[in-house]
Design a protein that fits this description.
Length: 476
């Protein structure tokens, strides 16, 4: 491979809107590894749903562009599809609840099935890499970025659940990405905006944040994403994604796969590393795949120039390009298992039904007398709740007030407070009944309505402490 081909092999850019032909041309011109599909790239039908046939055609077009060089391995077509608030693809694909649902359900086999279910819908559309699961260990309400994207506040549980999800994805033929090393769940700043500071020492990190990543490495998972987090104990002032000591720590866990950066167009990086310097710095530090550089042509030119000038060792670029190509050769040879029995919708419903958690209130019998009122939530939440209530035989318009708390919502009163995302707002709610639902899908609302009507138990356990309610709280 020429230096230009190697430089392209380590770059995975995004693109704007429906500019598929322009992206395909850039892939061919710059020899890029592939592309990531973001929300604005997803074709929609007249009802606003994902146009599955058009999405498949887009992915095929981008995939063909990566083989223009004659490379005998497939290009990368990636997407962010975690479930909950991070899901680029919605109906008619299955809507999945927040990943914290898996920690609340505490069923590794179910989590594996869900991972296989998610990937089983991505693979036929031409996706071969998903930037999931999130293996961060959340510290609770002081964690502004990860929240319910984390599976648990317990390192061992986060490890078990994230590895199970990833193994399910692999079985369905999609490469999982374990993120965000060295741990984004225990910092208090949002790296989309500025650079978070992780003040924990290495031993504390090993005992908490790194446990899921160690489990991922021990399980042979292929990709780990580094986050934009400064860790003074490793390299002060430098984002982990651009820190040689962070990559050395990751390799020190025994990791031999592909290390990918978080998106290089995020505020934590762009404020400190202008033009193409972020790409060169990340590559020199030990990254193998550079995600979403702010300007991919600029990043490509900077890498080629860096090698030519000696500022970037040729051997480092060779190592990174070889790792990416090797992974994709392996991916191209792998088969995939069929999706688990039952539809994705049935699996999603099973996850939500297994996760719903009562923090305060009765654990048996109906929680409402046959009719309810509803308030709060985000767009569409009340309507979804009302439809689920009707399916459960509950009337709407009188009776106890159910207060829905959406993503980032404030504590709410009423008779029954329901957290639809992270459960933290329940801490400040004066409602006598408090329920954590961890999702706002139709299936999640069905699980809630069934509990309210006394037709189903709430078997979930709180995956992280919420004020006076310790982790593990819930009905016996």
């Amino acid at each position: 491979m020429s230096p230009e081909q190697k430089a392209g092999q380590v770059l995975l850019p995004s693109y704007g809107g429906q500019q598929v032909d322009a992206q395909a041309a850039a892939i061919e011109r710059l020899h890029l590894a592939g592309s990531i599909i973001m929300g604005d790239n997803v074709p929609r039908d007249p009802r606003g749903q994902v146009d599955v046939a058009a999405m498949t055609a887009v992915n095929q077009r981008l995939s063909r562009a990566t083989t223009a060089d004659g490379d005998p391995w497939p290009g990368i077509v990636g997407v962010d599809q975690e479930g909950g608030i991070v899901a680029r693809l919605a109906a008619p694909l299955t809507e999945w609840p927040t990943p914290m649902s898996y920690g609340a359900a505490g069923n590794a086999a179910l989590t594996r099935d869900a991972g296989q279910g998610v990937a089983g819908e991505l693979a036929p559309l031409g996706f071969n890499l998903d930037f999931a699961p999130d293996a961060d260990v959340t510290i609770g309400p002081k964690d502004p970025t990860i929240g319910a994207r984390s599976m648990s506040g317990d390192p061992a549980a986060a490890a078990t659940q994230s590895v199970s999800f990833a193994q399910g994805m692999l079985a369905a033929g999609v490469l999982p990405t374990v993120k965000h090393f060295p741990g984004h769940g225990s910092v208090t700043t949002d790296s989309h905006l500025s650079l978070p500071l992780q003040n924990a020492g290495v031993e504390e990190l090993r005992g908490r944040d790194w446990k899921p990543f160690q489990a991922a490495v021990d399980s042979g998972l292929p990709i780990v994403m580094t986050g934009h987090i400064a860790v003074p104990a490793l390299e002060p002032g430098v984002p982990a994604s651009l820190s040689s000591k962070t990559y050395a720590a990751l390799r020190g866990l025994g990791f031999k796969g592909v290390a990918v950066t978080d998106a290089l167009n995020m505020g934590a990086v762009t404020k400190q590393y202008p033009a193409g310097s972020a790409a060169v710095s990340a590559l020199a530090a030990g990254a193998d795949l550079l995600l979403m550089p702010a300007d991919v042509a600029q990043a490509h030119a900077a890498i080629v120039q860096g090698v030519a000038s000696g500022a970037l060792p040729k051997e480092r670029l060779d190592e990174a390009a070889t790792r990416v190509a090797t992974m994709m050769i392996w991916q191209g040879r792998r088969g995939s298992a069929p999706a688990p029995a039952g539809s994705g919708a049935a699996l999603s419903a099973k996850v939500s039904g297994s996760a719903v958690t009562i923090l305060a209130g009765s654990c048996s019998g109906p929680l409402v007398p046959g009719a309810v009122r509803v308030a709060g939530g985000g767009p569409g939440d009340k309507e979804r709740f009302e439809a689920a209530a009707a399916r459960a035989g509950l009337a709407v318009g009188s009776g106890p007030l159910v207060s829905l708390i959406g993503y980032g919502g404030a504590p709410a009163g009423g008779d029954i407070a329901v957290a639809l995302d992270a459960p933290w707002p329940l801490q400040g709610s004066p409602a006598p009944v408090k329920i954590a639902l961890y999702g706002r899908t139709d299936a999640a609302f069905d699980a809630l309505a069934a509990v309210l009507a006394g037709k189903a138990a709430a078997p979930g356990k709180l995956p992280a402490a919420v004020g006076p309610y310790p982790a593990g709280s819930g009905c016996p």
